[in-house]
Amino acid sequence: MDEVIAWLNDRIPSSPANEATIVHNDFKLDNIMLDEAAPARVVAVLDWEMRTVGDPLIDVGLLLAYWTMRGSETPSDPNSSLRAITHGPGWLTREEIIDRYESKTGRDLSRIVFYETFARFKVAVVIQQIYFRYAQGQTSDERFRHFDALVKELTQEALALANDSRI
Question: What would the mean pLDDT of 63-79 be, rounded to a whole number?
Fold first, then answer.
């Protein structure tokens, strides 16, 4: 965690104030509703309690952190711990998401690895808090029993992303 924190601190992007937008802070497939007749169309974004105003690439990084691809189930792959339906056929690739976002918004995603590394770190922190509550007996939900291992895996993935990047 300390290495990831240091890497992130050394690379915080500057974001001009005039480019700030509403940021969901938990933008992923389980927080959207799709049109039944046209499933490629989002009709609602749910779960806004963590919203803020800031850099919109925070949401893109989180989306990519959850956007797994076929063949990304191995522990050495930086997409292994956050699994999603997106590894099945018919979903955009991560590169297609980045290209589409850049072309629609005009924003530069050349440093998107910072945002995905931050997203994995952020999710690890949230999972750690849930595990801590379980370990302290504040919740007895057995789904949380092995969240300590998930925290380690997410942190390792964040560090691998950081170390493999060129930013």
Answer: 61
